[in-house]
Amino acid sequence: MPKGSFVINTARGGLIDEVALLEAVRSGQLAGAGLDSFATEPPGAAHPFWAEPRITVTPHIGGVTREAGARVGVEAVRGIIDILEGRPVPPARIVNRRLLEASRAPLAKMED
User: Among residues 47, 52, 54, 60, which one is catalytic?
Assistant: First the structure.
């Protein structure tokens, strides 16, 4: 990154090489960093990020807003209703399709 840049990670831990980031900030290559996720969460009390004033850390709450919470709740209820009413669930919302299909089998027998 260009000298004087800031690194911001609100995605997933492990995307950032934390050792390299710390070295880049301490050397002045980077002006600082803002991190919301870490390779190990939560970072231990001895993690060097805590002592580096140019690195700001948050407790993996970057996406926690009122709007996001409401959206998650609405999507969860929609998903439950879709499953109970037998509608196909979009692949993006399925974590384990085989488990879902297995859970539907007893319901199908009850309807027969």
Answer: 60
DSSP 45-64: TT-GGGG-TTEEE--S-TT-
Q: Which of 23, 41, 75, 101 is catalytic?
A: 41
Residue 41 is a catalytic residue = yes
Residue 9 corresponds to which tokens in the numbers above? 């990670």
Where are the chain's structural domains? 5-57, 66-111
Judge contact between 30 and 24, C-beta under 8 A: yes
The encoded tokens of residue 86 equal 């037998």
pLDDT tens per residue, range 49-100: 999 999 999 887 777 788 988 988 898 888 888 888 888 766 666 667 777 6
57 within 8 A of 41, measured Cβ to Cβ = no
Global model pTM greater than 0.70: no
